[in-house]
Design goal:
mainly alpha; Rossmann fold; Tyrosyl-Transfer RNA Synthetase; 2 domains; two-stranded parallel sheet; binds tryptophanyl-5'AMP
Amino acid sequence: MTTRIFSGMRPSGKLHLGNYLGAIKNWIALQDAPDTAQCVFAAVDLHAITTPYDPATFQQNVTNVLLDYLAAGVDPKKSLLIRQSRVPQHTELMWLLSTISPVGWLERLPNWREKVEQVQSMGDRGASYQNNLSLLSYPVLMAADILLYKANLVPIGDDQLPHIELTNEVGAKFNHLFGDTFPNVKPFIAAGARIMSLQDPTKKMSKTGDDGIALTDTPDEVRGKIKRATTDSGREVTFDETAKPGISNLLTIFSTLSGKTVGELERDYAGKSYGDFKGDLAEVVVGFLAPFQQRRAELAADPATLARILTESEEKARIIASENLAEVHRAMGL
Ligand code: TYM
């Protein structure tokens, strides 16, 4: 089967280890897979503005996300690297899809409720966002992002699964009403699909909190955060998400970064302390981040290269997008 891939991240804070392990790591693997015919990776700036943000620093956030993608290994020779707002077909397709998206489908999504709670906790400015249409219609734009490129595989963390289900429901409804146009979309979820907060391992690691390891953290920040990470009662380094959510999360991070299985790690640390385990994990994370940060610094020092990559990618993306959108227009009788 020919695979067409789309994925994106909101430029609304520093990317963290969860974003890398849950998504970007798989983007890199998939861009090299033999069946892959097309990859589009986006900074989804139009999604990021659905929660309060500062226009003065927003472009820097967008640039930061794009630098993270490139430094992590997104290869502009194989993949298109775009800013969502620079391909206006995303928003047009969103409108067209919104004409067949029942409000009840959107209200049902857990992500919407979480977003409403999140903005409610963001002071007066946040509270003024809580009833906005875009918080509710957010997943229709996400469906448009994916369907615009007829993507059939979306590498994401598991928190995004309800959005993929909605994408398929809307796509199937379109096909039923207007004729076969959109493919079925499969999520690509791998180990590390849900990296939890280091402070509260019952919550996922997030961009907004300072509970995560940012890809730009210094070695000392990483060591400090892992040292302070919540562990569980007991002293064995064993995987048990219910009884030992803290250690289990650290084992997942260790395993996905080192390539060792959780079983191997359990054996390596049998009879050793949490402190030994955390100390080694910190060095694995520091060792992973060092070459990433080196590449990132080189890319950041050369803004012309990023600008060229974006210009070329966005031009190609607009061509694919306008061809697919023309097909949608024809199907809808526009
Ligand atoms: P966003 O920006 O919240 O997160 C970007 C990606 O990182 C994954 N992720 C995690 N994975 C593991 N553990 C975590 N703690 C963790 N936190 C985040 C997310 O699952 C996601 O894959 N709605 C999307 C952005 C989006 C999109 C799209 C994604 C817009 N259009 C089209 C895919 C396809 C979002 O807010 O992701």
